[in-house]
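for the record, two folds in this file. i put them one after another cuz i was lazy. first one right below, seq on top, structure tokens after. the second one comes after a little note so u can tell where it starts
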Amino acid sequence: MSSERQPDVHPAVARFAAVAETAKKRTRHRPAPAKVIQLPFWPEPKRGAPNAVLRAALFAAVQGKGRIALDRELLAAQNGITIRYTGWQLTQSDLDVWEQALHLARTQALGTRCRFTERGFLKALGRQPGGQNVDWLRSAFARLGASWVEISDGRQTYFGPLLERGAREEETGQYVLEINPELAAFFGPTRWTQIDWEQRQLLRNKPLALWLHGFYASHAAPHALTVEYLHKLSGSRNKQLRFFKRHLTQALTDLQQVGAVRSFEIRDNLVHVQTMPSRSQQRHLAARRPPTRRRR
């Protein structure tokens, strides 16, 4: 059986075909680009924090001078949240520092270096640069970096430090910090809250008021809770419940004065608080309402 002779292929065309085939194979086996993980972008007057953190005793309502060392301690947390902690106990002032670090990191992919100056960071916290405030900030960075947390909200568990690592240029005061990208899972829809930063600054040096500020901000329509429950959840070391109740009343009064809650009442050992839900929380509440039936 005879076959027709194939026409000769020009060498340049053959080389081009070979190069194209090689490029096609390389493209086929090229790994997919890494997914960029980034926090939601909240506005400048706000600070973002996971609900799992705000609804637990991770950042306790205690003074810094009373902090203790913990070894994989199971912390008090709202139902559905589990937190174990190893390291020096964290307080509400440490939460200020962590929230500000997250605030700066929200503009770029997590795991990349977030740059800022020590002076600028302190000013954002409402503290004067220099002196004792510098030592306080560096101590807070050390606690957040040396801590080991295990946080679970029933859908995701994160274990590791709250600050991954960092560096400081001594001559300029320039910092670089890194946040673990795995923490982004706790910033999914309905899993985090925007905190009013100005209100929080007005509550400085009031640990219980600061803790309540974050706790109630994370609830669109909070249920009535017992005094004992809030005592446990806040991490307060006030051993006398009647004294804690007195402090609780004052702290809620402080929240009302700065505009964080609309009203509150402590009746029959139950704490009733009416909050001012944000727009996103209002949408969430509206979505939960059962549809109205039309009358026939």
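(here's the note) second protein begins now
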Amino acid sequence: MPEVPARPIPRGVGLALIAGIAVLFASNHVAARLAFDHGTSVVTAVLVRSAVTALAVAVLLRATGTSWSLASPTRRQAVIIGLVLSVQSVCLYASVARIPVALALLTFNSFPVVLALLSWATGGERPTRRTAIAMPVILSGLVLALDVPGVLSSGGRSLEDPARFAAGVGFGLAASLAFGTALLLTTRWMGAVDGRVRTLWSMGVVSAVALAGGLAIDGFAWPADTPGWTGLALLTVLYGTAFTSLFVVLPRLGAVNSAPAMNLEPIASMALAWLLLGQRIGWVQVAGGVLVVGAIVWTSLGPKPAPRGG
């Protein structure tokens, strides 16, 4: 398949699209928690969402006459990215299953910092000064928005038990490292490949890994009731839409300097919990959300990223 670089997306438009994708990802994780609370296992959720996404993209590619074949070197790179995403998928859902969704996403959304450090350390895209300043501001805002001090001072009542909480945070950090690595490799290796083709290969590999792992450990468990099936269906649709959109937009914008916009994901999850579950949001949390959004807007108004090696 000829690999023709896609035209870049205007930065403001791209950041707005990524913010919308963050909301889709947040909705996916709220739906995932619903599925987990009603009998679905992590491996089952990963397999279903990945396999359905891969199948839907394959049908779309066939309908549009687009080839999904890749040259041998690129094919190997796609498999590597898929393996890294398999780790990310399992770890993030394992985190969501153990601790509150907002806390899991707070931990996971350290990935822009991980991505920036990995990119810089490997001689790739360097974050702009604004992005470097915005990252700790965004993380600080997330701490306030998700009321982490309040949760930690609650005596563990909302965390069920310390060991479960520690495991959830550990899985979230592992997912952050894996996702930052996957974004870096995608931008470096597959920026010229159609985003739908990238999605098909990545989700195909994740599906294969989830199927093999689930069979090996007898880890499949299906929803026990209607709410569980509803959660599984919603997480599949939302994740497939968000993941495909992300892979289309990100290489055309630049991973390092657009990734902070993904920090809207835990804010969106908090808002969804307020809208759907009636949870109240305190003024400190509102202030944290304003800080996050303000930092993202400030970053988007800055100069374009420095050229590679510049």
